[in-house]
Design goal:
Order of helices and strands of chain B: HHEHHHHHE
CATH class of chain A: Mainly Alpha
Largest sheet of chain B: 2 strands, parallel
Helix content of chain A: 40-55%
CATH superfamily of chain B: Ferritin, core subunit, four-helix bundle
Distance between the termini of chain B: 30 Å
Structural class of chain A: mainly alpha
Mean pLDDT of chain B: 81
CATH class of chain B: Mainly Alpha
CATH topology of chain A: Ferritin
Number of helices of chain B: 7
Shape of chain A: globular
CATH architecture of chain A: Up-down Bundle
Oligomer: heterodimer
Strand order of the largest sheet of chain A: 1-2
Low-confidence stretches of chain B: 1-6, 9-56
CATH superfamily of chain A: Ferritin, core subunit, four-helix bundle
Order of helices and strands of chain A: HHHHHHHHEEHHH
CATH topology of chain B: Ferritin
């Protein structure tokens, strides 16, 4: 797993920092601060925000996500006839953003004196580049609807990962500001892909909704669905662990009937833990 | 509260109704104390006028300092958005297509929920610091037009929706660094991505494929817009009657 704390690695002299690397010291310090704050911090945070990840872990995982997304769009755009001509520019634009995001994250690692991981050989079939393995995501690069379904789930996953990791790196002002600004771009991408699917007859909203038709996958691919939209039906928001903001009851009390309204859950996108996110990313490497 | 109607929110009857009943602050805090077995109570309302900044159109209203300032800032934005969509939703004659009306009705619910959520959060964590209800001024919006045509002086519905959603995304993105409590940062993140989804939707209605166009997402960095509270409040000024001061937000 890439989620172990890499504080020690950052601190180790074997990491070859070339020249002054101011961010390296910063990351190191922040990582330690984050861990030191855990016993206190965990009790006061929503479950999804509780994590032992360091800034390094966060940036590394987000880089993997961006590389996965940009590889998918690069390969899809290279397949003649997969993406309709009318939408090619849309995916070019998203690819361009993802390429910029990946470059930014890689640069953050370089500035920190950390090594940039090599790009894995992604396999969008879920076979892990082994022909004998079962296909979890069939025809992603030959069937437009299948491609869109995967694209939507990866964009949704991106929204949730950035949402969670923005917290992990919230002490690094420059990084944090940029990550927040990438986060909303992921949401715009997701909204668009969802709109494209709706235009092709899929029952899907612009935002994750319990009214969306489920994307049917083999059991082996469940990790992606869980990471992309699992828990989106959550209609209760927490101020701190076990302390609800009372708006849920506030709304339902309006006429003393417990009304089930999907809007309550739709109005808030949910974060995902890095552990759950990594399980999804691992399906493709 | 009993003496003044609430100008924003009153147009979303199913959500706003509890506010017309008197506050039960004591009960509210019993709930807020959040003992697990707290009995369900009627959260009739969360504020009363004595708790809020006095209404005035002549004086400038400060949004406050620290995290409460940020929350009030978000609350101001959500009040504006909720009021706008409530009006769109309630039009008896609309230039929007039925599918668009359905969609904007859902967006109206999201924004009303954001507004009420922030209101509940501020009342819980900073009693007495809640920003007053704002009075919208939509005189610059022509609710009979879907989009403005060349020569029009007023925004059409979609133009205004795009302006509000883009502004909301940039506002939350710019406010993130001002939030000190991690829990609020997470909450803000949970709201801003929904705003971004709204923005992408309405942008595509106006110009297909403009969901993340270069006027919103920087073409060289791939970063979405971020604006400071003071800049956002200045832009909002055209749409609300009260004068707001965001200079101390987050400080």
């Amino acid at each position: 797993m890439k989620l172990i704390s890499l504080l020690d690695r950052l601190a180790a002299p074997s990491v070859t920092a070339v020249g002054p690397a101011p961010r390296r010291a910063l990351l190191q310090q922040l990582g330690r601060a984050a861990v030191a704050a855990l016993p206190l911090g965990l009790g006061a945070l929503p479950a999804a925000a509780g994590t032992k990840d360091t800034s390094f872990d966060a940036v590394t995982q987000l880089l993997l996500l961006e590389r996965l997304q940009l590889t998918l769009y690069t390969q899809a755009l290279a397949v003649t006839g997969l993406i309709p001509a009318a939408q090619a520019a849309d995916f070019q634009r998203m690819l361009s953003h993802q390429t910029q995001h990946a470059a930014f994250l890689a640069q953050a690692l370089v500035s920190a004196g950390a090594a940039v991981p090599s790009v894995p050989a992604f396999d969008f079939s879920g076979q892990h580049n082994v022909a004998a393995n079962p296909v979890l995501f069939p025809n992603v690069l030959t069937n437009y609807d299948n491609f869109l379904a995967l694209a939507q789930q990866l964009e949704d996953l991106g929204v949730r990962m950035y949402k969670a990791q923005a917290f992990v790196i919230s002490d690094d002002s420059q990084l944090s500001k940029a990550v927040l600004r990438i986060h909303s771009v992921e949401a715009e991408h997701s909204a668009h892909v969802r709109g494209l699917r709706r235009g092709r007859g899929a029952v899907v909203s612009t935002w994750p909704s319990e009214e969306d038709a489920a994307i049917v996958r083999p059991a082996g691919a469940q990790a992606l669905t869980t990471a992309a939209t699992g828990g989106e039906e959550n209609a209760v928001q927490y101020r701190a662990a076990n302390v609800k903001i009372p708006f849920y009851n506030f709304l339902l009390s309006r006429d003393n009937t417990a009304i089930h309204d999907p809007s309550l859950a739709e109005a808030f996108d949910e974060p995902v833990t890095s552990f759950v996110a990594q399980a999804a990313l691992n399906l493709f490497v | 509260m009993p003496d003044t109607p609430r100008p924003i929110g009153s147009d979303a009857p199913q959500l706003a109704q509890p506010r017309y009943t008197p506050i039960k602050r004591r009960s509210f805090f019993m709930y807020a104390g959040a003992t697990a077995g707290a009995t369900a109570l009627v959260l009739a309302g969360c504020s009363k006028d004595s708790d809020t900044t006095p209404a005035s159109t002549n004086t400038t209203i400060s949004l406050g300092t620290g995290d409460v300032g940020v929350l009030n800032y978000a609350y101001a934005l959500e009040q504006l958005e909720a009021a706008f969509y409530a009006q769109v939703k309630g039009l008896t004659s609309t230039p929007l297509s039925p599918a668009e009306v359905t969609y904007f009705t859902q967006v109206a619910a999201h924004e009303a929920i954001h507004r009420d959520f922030l209101r509940a959060a501020i009342n819980r964590d900073a009693p007495g610091k809640l920003l007053q209800d704002l009075t919208p001024n939509f005189s610059g919006i022509d609710f009979t037009k879907r989009t403005m045509a060349a020569g029009d002086s007023k925004l059409g519905i979609l133009d205004a929706a795009k302006a509000f959603e883009d502004l909301g995304v940039a506002a939350y993105n710019g406010a993130g660094k001002l939030i000190k409590s991690p829990a609020y940062l997470v909450i803000a993140g949970q709201i801003v991505s929904v705003e971004a989804r709204h923005a992408a939707y309405v942008r595509n209605l106006i110009t297909p494929g403009s969901f993340a166009a270069d006027d919103q997402v920087d073409a060289t960095t791939g970063l979405d817009k971020a604006l400071t509270p003071s800049t956002v409040i200045a832009i909002m000024g055209a749409f609300i009657t009260q004068k707001l001061d965001a200079s101390t937000v987050g400080h």
